[in-house]
Structure formats: structure tokens, C-alpha cells
Structure to design on (582 residues):
């Protein structure tokens, strides 16, 4: 069919190139994970060897569990990420519905206003955000982080979701109206279930930056009780620079949840990116 | 009656508009406003453009500012020169129609992108560390041991090294976006080229490249915005002082130090606002240049 573009040599070279790059991409992660299970001597003696019966050790993990409150950090990260995502999706979908469903004066202008935040990073406003959080007593609470991440995620969410909501059939909505459904019922019972795939895309897009953010936890919620996993591991590793077992174990513990989330959601994420949702 | 039936529009819009306005837009403009104030005995007092005069005029401040800005441009250039070509090359290989394991490669190469800067920063710091010896060991194995240097500790190399680490982390994004663009090119177009004798590299350069140019444009502006408010990687790998000797200082770390203070210098929210404002205008200029200068001139093809 299209033989000219395929020959075995090319395909062999393609695999070679991809394998090389995959190795480059995974090597650092693998080195950290492997060495976190070894004794200090083995870490330095044979950094690239897999742990065996003699070099296997969990001493690093024991130090981490004793010293750092990783369960609390994990819980904080979880609360912040899940609540922010929930609010982004709910508020974003509501606004997207208003913009895509109704004609009203200022519709386009409102759409542009909400889209401003796609390009301008929220970090620019940090000075005033901190002052506002201090004034309202929200500093060192998870609520401060949730508010910031919700505001940060809304512009893109509204943009993507309103694109999708325009595709929901008008006949369906009008049928609902004839049956006497309120506009709220139409939104929650007819439209929301239909845009679920788009909601998943938005959720996956926002999840990683929120989970991984260091800037706002560092500035708005650095207290022991509100540290997120990202900030917690940063501080912990900073304190234990010379204890290689502990540092490697802390890194592994920080990698693990993201990796698990990625394995669960990677298809969704990749489909979201490649479906052109970010155009 | 009419006003009542339209009430729900406001209800649908209100939560998003309120949160977005209160937490994003108002602080953004408040930060711009604060850059014209300074701390006085009774709180903030209006200072005109004094902060900007200090930032650009005072030799110590302006040296730091231009250093950070210059470093930031270098950081961006490395991304444009390495991250995007590598991303495009990977996408081009992946989009080969009958390539096996494409999904597996794609997922694996994307893994660094999902890791936090904390993990990436520390992991590379350990790997490049002369104490642990992984990097020199590997270079030794391929006979290049003489090339090893403690890159992160050398003023001359540290910034480039960190930029490359950041490239390593984010190469997945251009790869995915270009991959999506390449997949959307219809087979007929490629076959038509083939009949005219365009295959392999020629087909890529003459048919595919013009078609993915808009995606390359989007990636460039995303990279620009991302790089000019970058902070986390430098902070985790080199600390707030962006050592050695500020050679890895970029606008984000400069803003953080100014705003929060470090060592003996006290934090100054007003100078911090001035730097944030400068960042705002740099990013705005870049986005406008893209939207009005590049995007409108780019030819788009519809199939």
C-alpha cells in the first residue's frame, strides 16, 4: 500500500531511537527507586546494581517514617487536590454552560475575561494574594491553597468545557424544557452526564500541576499541619541531605503516588492531550 | 418576567466569576498597584515609580535584575533549541503508522513530566553529584570520563545543566502535542506527496512541517510563559540563592528572594511587586507578540 514509507531498516532505527530516549527518561527514576532499597554501603559501592539479599535494606524508609509526617502530608495533598478539582469542575462547568447555552449581553466579553487567565500565570499576583490571605486569616490553611488552585484552573476548564457543551444537542435540552425541567435540572441531569469525558480531561490536566506545586504551599501554607507532600518532601530532604538512605526513600515515597495516579489515568491524560483539547 | 427567567444565568456564572475575580484578577492588579508603593511608618505610602527606578537604576538591584532576566532568556533558548526539536523528532518517529509499542513508548517518555520539581531537582542533583559517582561512572563506561565536572557547582555550567534537566522533564509536552498534530494529517495528502516522489525526510519537511507549524507556535508560547515564571526547579536544586554566585538566578527566584528576604536582607513586598510587574509585562509582551505577530500570519490548512 504505502511501501515507500516503510522498510525494516527504518523501523529498526525508530525502535533504537525510542528505546534510547525511553532509557534516558526512566533512568533517573529507576536509579532512585532501586537505591532506596539498599544499604548505605551498597548505594555507594554499586549504585546501578539491583538490591540483593545482602544489600537489601529498609533503613531509609524507617527513618522517613519516624521523622517525617508523610501520611499527614499525603492527606493534605489529597484534600487540596480533590477539593480543588471538584470546585474547578463544578464552577467551570456551570460557567461554561451559561456561556455556551444562553445568549445574553456581554457573553463574548465574559468569555474573553475568563480566558485571560489561560495565558497569565497566577503566580504574578502572589504578593497581593498573600496579603489577602493574611487579611482574611486564611494563611496556613488548606482553604487558601484550594482557593488559589480553583482560580488557577477555572479559565482553561471553562474554555474546554464550553467547547464541548456547544456540541450537546439542542433538541435534547428543549425536550427537557417542554417536560417542565428547570434550567438547573437540564444542566445537572442532561448536560453534565453528557460532557463527562471532557470533565475527565479537565480533571487530569489540573491534577498534576496542583499535586506538584511548590510555590503556593511554600508561601501560603508552610506550617507543619498544612504541608503538602511536595513541600514536605522538599523540606525533609533539605534537612537530611547527608542521610542518603532517607533522602532516596523520601524521593521514592514522593514518586510513588504520582506514578500510581499516572498508571490509572494515563490513557485519559494522553487522550485528552491528543484530542486537541489544549488548542 | 424576563428578568426572572434569566436569573439562572447569573447563578451559573457567579461562583466561577467570583472566585476567579477575587483570587486571580484582583490580586494581579493589586500587585501592579503595590509596585508603586513603599513601606512607610504607617503602612504603604505612594512612591510613584521609585521602585522601578531602584530596580533599573540602582547598580546592585539592576545588576541582579538583568542577571536574572538574561539567565531566564538563556533558560528559554535552551528549551527552544533542545526541548522542541527533540519533542518533534520523537513525535515524528512515534507517528509512524505501523510502529509497534507506540503507546508504551509514549507513556514511558511522558513519565518525567508528571513528576514534581522536587523529585526531579533532587534526583538529578544526586545523579550528577561527584560524591555518588553515577554520572562519572557512566561517562567512564563510554570513555568520556574526562568530560565530567561537577556541573551544578560550576558557575559556567550550572544554568545550562538545569535548563537541560528541565528539558528532560518537559519534553513529553511538545512530543504529545506534535504527535496529535501529525496524526491529524490525512493519509491522502501524504499519498499525494508520495506520488510526486516525496518520501521520508522530504515528506516531513515539505508536507508535515508546514502543517504542524501552528502547533509549534503554541508550544513555543507555552514554553515562554512556563519559563518566565519558573521557580521550583532552581529552588529545589540550588536553593533560594540560586547559586553558585547567582549564576542560576531567574526571575522567579529573584522575585522569591526579594519578596521573602534571605539571610540578612529583609523581605520587601513592594520591590517584590515591582519585579512581579516586570514579569507580567514580559509575559504579556511575549503573548501579544505571539497572538498578533505570529499566529495571525501563520497559514492554516483545512481538510
Amino acid at each position: 500500500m504505502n511501501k515507500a514509507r516503510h522498510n525494516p531498516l527504518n523501523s529498526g532505527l525508530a525502535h533504537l531511537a525510542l528505546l534510547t530516549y525511553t532509557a534516558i527518561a526512566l533512568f533517573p527514576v529507576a536509579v532512585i527507586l532501586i537505591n532506596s532499597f539498599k544499604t548505605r554501603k551498597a548505594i555507594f559501592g554499586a549504585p546501578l546494581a539491583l538490591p540483593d539479599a545482602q544489600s537489601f535494606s529498609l533503613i531509609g524508609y524507617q527513618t522517613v517514617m519516624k521523622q517525617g509526617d508523610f501520611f499527614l502530608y499525603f492527606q493534605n495533598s489529597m484534600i487540596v487536590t480533590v477539593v480543588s478539582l471538584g470546585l474547578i469542575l463544578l464552577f467551570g462547568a456551570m460557567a461554561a454552560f451559561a456561556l455556551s447555552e444562553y445568549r445574553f449581553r456581554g457573553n463574548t466579553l465574559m468569555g474573553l475575561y475568563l480566558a485571560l487567565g489561560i495565558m497569565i500565570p497566577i503566580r504574578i499576583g502572589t504578593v497581593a494574594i498573600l496579603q489577602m490571605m493574611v487579611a482574611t486569616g486564611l494563611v496556613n490553611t488548606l482553604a487558601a491553597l484550594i482557593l488559589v488552585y480553583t482560580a488557577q484552573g477555572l479559565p482553561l476548564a471553562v474554555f474546554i468545557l464550553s467547547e464541548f457543551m456547544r456540541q450537546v444537542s439542542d433538541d435534547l435540552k428543549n425536550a427537557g424544557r417542554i417536560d417542565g425541567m428547570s434550567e438547573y435540572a437540564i444542566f445537572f441531569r442532561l448536560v453534565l452526564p453528557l460532557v463527562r469525558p471532557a470533565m475527565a480531561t479537565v480533571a487530569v490536566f489540573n491534577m498534576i500541576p496542583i499535586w506538584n506545586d511548590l510555590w503556593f504551599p511554600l508561601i501560603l501554607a508552610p506550617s507543619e499541619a498544612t504541608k503538602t507532600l511536595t513541600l514536605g518532601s522538599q523540606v525533609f530532604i533539605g534537612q537530611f541531605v547527608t542521610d542518603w538512605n532517607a533522602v532516596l526513600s523520601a524521593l521514592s515515597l514522593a514518586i510513588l503516588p504520582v506514578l500510581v495516579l499516572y498508571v490509572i489515568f494515563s490513557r485519559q491524560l494522553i487522550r485528552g492531550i491528543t484530542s486537541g483539547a489544549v488548542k | 418576567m424576563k428578568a426572572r427567567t434569566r436569573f439562572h444565568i447569573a447563578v451559573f456564572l457567579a461562583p466561577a466569576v467570583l472566585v476567579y475575580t477575587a483570587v486571580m484578577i484582583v490580586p494581579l492588579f493589586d500587585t501592579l498597584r503595590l509596585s508603586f508603593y513603599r513601606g512607610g511608618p504607617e503602612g504603604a505610602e505612594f512612591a510613584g515609580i521609585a521602585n522601578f527606578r531602584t530596580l533599573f537604576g540602582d547598580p546592585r538591584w539592576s545588576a541582579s535584575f538583568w542577571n536574572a532576566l538574561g539567565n531566564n532568556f538563556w533558560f528559554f533558548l535552551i528549551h527552544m533549541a533542545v526541548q522542541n526539536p527533540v519533542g518533534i523528532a520523537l513525535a515524528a518517529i512515534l507517528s509512524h503508522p505501523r510502529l509497534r509499542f507506540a503507546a508504551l513508548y509514549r507513556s514511558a517518555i511522558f513519565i518525567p513530566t508528571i513528576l514534581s520539581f522536587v523529585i526531579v531537582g533532587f534526583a538529578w542533583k544526586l545523579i550528577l553529584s561527584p560524591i555518588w559517582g553515577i554520572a562519572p561512572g557512566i561517562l567512564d563506561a563510554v570513555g568520556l570520563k574526562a568530560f565530567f565536572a561537577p556541573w551544578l557547582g560550576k558557575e559556567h555550567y550550572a544554568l545550562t545543566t538545569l535548563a537541560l534537566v528541565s528539558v528532560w522533564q518537559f519534553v513529553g509536552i511538545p512530543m504529545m502535542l506534535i504527535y496529535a498534530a501529525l496524526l491529524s494529517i490525512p493519509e491522502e495528502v501524504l499519498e499525494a506527496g508520495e506520488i510526486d516522489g516525496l518520501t521520508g525526510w522530504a515528506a516531513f519537511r515539505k508536507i508535515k512541517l508546514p502543517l504542524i507549524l501552528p502547533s509549534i507556535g503554541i508550544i513555543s508560547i507555552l514554553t515562554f510563559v512556563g519559563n518566565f515564571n519558573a521557580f521550583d526547579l532552581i529552588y529545589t536544586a540550588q536553593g533560594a540563592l540560586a547559586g553558585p554566585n547567582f549564576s542560576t538566578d531567574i526571575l522567579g527566584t529573584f522575585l522569591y528572594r526579594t519578596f521573602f528576604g534571605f539571610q540578612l536582607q529583609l523581605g520587601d513586598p513592594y520591590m517584590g511587586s515591582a519585579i512581579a510587574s516586570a514579569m507580567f509585562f514580559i509575559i504579556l509582551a511575549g503573548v501579544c507578540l505571539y497572538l498578533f505577530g505570529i499566529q495571525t500570519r501563520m497559514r492554516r490548512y483545512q481538510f
Remarks:
- Residues 172 and 190 of chain A are 8 Å apart (CA to CA).
- The mean pLDDT of chain A is 86.
- The first helix of chain A runs from residue 8 to 35.
